[in-house]
Design goal:
With about 290 residues, this protein is of the alpha+beta class. It has eight helices and eight strands; from the N terminus they run H-H-H-E-E-H-H-E-E-E-E-E-E-H-H-H. A hairpin with a 2-residue loop joins strand 1 and strand 2 (about 135-145). It is globular, with a radius of gyration of 48 Å.
Length: about 290
């Protein structure tokens, strides 16, 4: 009974204190609420700042991506235009080469196709030489690039009276007749003083000079000797370069010793073209 009375008194005291002094609990609750509100406000502020930064970053990245896409697109267009220009240039150069070969074929001339290795040799300043021999017959080809215009090279090659001064293998010459399209001359060649009576046919438009033995005059050394000079503007070299072709086919007479045949087959054409590069480079040369 006493216990029950004590519990009842304790409960009444607790209610009375709560009723008489409500401010203490209320202020505590307000403090807790304010604390939670401050935490929530800080979180919102941080979230808002983070969101703004993210948005700004996204916008900035968007500009970067757009600029990258535009630049990439422009580069692609430039590459396409460049490839188109190169393809057009290559197609035009190939078309010009085909037209030149077709024109030369109408003159009885057939140019061989140069390999990539031979083109590299020409670009490095070397000459391309090809020679075939069968008994007393032989064929030779020499190709060389020079730093000069095609007009200058062609005009130089058509000055037949200057061959003695320019071509080391030519020891003397006698011009019988000469016009704009034809030259009839006698040349003495090499240390053996071999005499050749030759007719040169000049084709200015094609920059081609064909030569052959003059059948109306005596030729004791060769039964056949014919060939050509051809001046070409190469599409695989920079502007200002000219390609010179010299081709010759010979059949030696039965009266000619083998040592002379060997000389004609192995040294005549190379020596006939060695003067070209130093001459157009204005350099002194001796052979």
């Amino acid at each position: 009974m006493e216990v029950l009375l004590l519990l009842l008194l304790f409960s009444l005291n607790h209610l009375t204190l709560g009723f008489l002094f409500p401010t203490v609990n209320h202020q505590k609750n307000i403090a807790i609420t304010n604390n939670r509100h401050d935490k929530l406000k800080r979180k919102c502020t941080l979230y808002t700042a983070h969101s703004s930064s993210s948005i700004r970053s996204m916008i900035s990245n968007s500009h970067v991506y757009n600029n990258f896409d535009m630049t990439h697109h422009e580069n692609n267009e430039n590459n396409i235009q460049r490839r188109s220009s190169l393809s057009l240039y290559a197609a035009t150069a190939d078309q010009n080469t085909q037209c030149s070969k077709a024109t030369l074929r109408s003159r009885g001339i057939s140019l061989p196709t140069l390999t990539k290795r031979e083109l590299l040799d020409l670009a490095s300043g070397q000459r391309v030489q090809k020679q075939n021999r069968s008994g007393r017959a032989g064929h030779g080809l020499v190709v060389v690039d020079v730093k000069a215009s095609a007009e200058e090279v062609f005009n130089t090659l058509t000055q037949f009276d200057k061959y003695v001064e320019r071509i080391p293998t030519v020891r003397s010459s006698c011009i019988y007749s000469q016009t704009a399209s034809k030259c009839v001359a006698e040349f003495r060649v090499s240390r053996f003083s071999l005499r050749f009576n030759v007719i040169h046919s000049v084709y200015h438009d094609e920059k081609l000079i064909k030569f052959q033995l003059d059948d109306s005059r005596r030729n004791m050394v060769m039964r056949k000797a014919e060939g050509f000079w051809y001046v070409q503007t190469p599409s695989d070299r920079p502007d200002g370069y000219t390609r010179i072709w010299l081709s010759a086919e010979v059949i030696a007479s039965m009266f000619v010793p083998n040592m002379i045949v060997d000389y004609a087959a192995g040294r005549a054409l190379p020596r006939a073209t060695k003067w070209l590069q130093p001459y157009f480079a204005n350099e002194d040369y001796e052979f």
